[in-house]
Design brief:
Layout: H1 2-19, E1 26-31, E2 34-39, E3 44-50, E4 56-62, E5 68-74, E6 80-87, E7 92-100, E8 106-114, E9 120-128, E10 131-136, H2 154-162, H3 165-180, H4 185-199
Antiparallel strand pairs: 1-2, 2-3, 3-4, 4-5, 5-6, 6-7, 7-8, 8-9, 9-10
């Protein structure tokens, strides 16, 4: 059965990019817990998932709002997660984050910036079991991912700041709804981090 799923995944990855020029903005295939999708509405995005939200997930985007972005997850938000992003819209920004075991596990983040409004900068963040430390070069250091005060990753903060004021307001209003309904703890933590970022 695993060979069959692998063949389906490979076939879909080869077939779906060919559908993009045919006028489709988004195409996807999902069979028996394996899903693959391609989106050409804002650059080129390809995603694959095996086993749902707690399985293996990977996505890659080129073009659109950032130059390049790659994300991977094994076992959901409390599993092993990695993200790398690069952007050249206002200077050059490269960010990388990794986590093992969620916000109370081992978390690391690094960012390098050149040009734009911030000049040249670098920051490194490390958090282990909730106690984090940040180290900064000429650029801005941070409290550390997984530190005593939760914070967004550089890529998350950049995405939030890139939204229009209306989009930010709608997202924060949706967060208010989620927080008042007693939703899952991880989503509530993300909403609290978004609120803190919006207040800065």
């Amino acid at each position: 059965m695993n060979v069959r799923r692998s063949m389906l995944l490979v076939s879909a990855c080869l077939l779906l990019p060919a559908l993009g020029p045919a006028g489709a903005q988004e195409a996807g295939v999902s069979v028996g817990g394996v899903s693959v999708g391609v989106d050409t509405s804002d650059g080129l995005g390809v995603g694959a998932s095996v086993g749902g939200s707690n399985g293996v997930d990977a996505s890659a985007n080129v073009g659109g709002s950032s130059l390049a972005d790659v994300d991977a997850s094994l076992g959901g938000t409390d599993g092993v997660n990695a993200s790398i992003g690069a952007d050249i819209s206002d200077g050059v920004d490269v960010d990388a984050t990794a986590s093992i075991g969620g916000s109370n596990g081992v978390n690391a983040g690094a960012g390098v910036r050149a040009g734009g409004g911030s000049g040249v900068g670098a920051d490194v963040e490390l958090g282990i079991g909730g106690a984090g430390a940040g180290v900064g070069g000429p650029g801005a250091g941070g409290p550390g991912v997984g530190g005593t005060e939760p914070d967004l990753t550089p890529a998350q903060r950049e995405a939030f700041n890139a939204m229009s004021e209306d989009e930010q307001r709608r997202l924060l209003n949706r967060c208010d709804d989620l927080l008042s309904s007693g939703t899952d703890a991880e989503l509530a933590a993300l909403c609290r981090m978004l609120r803190m970022t919006a207040q800065r």
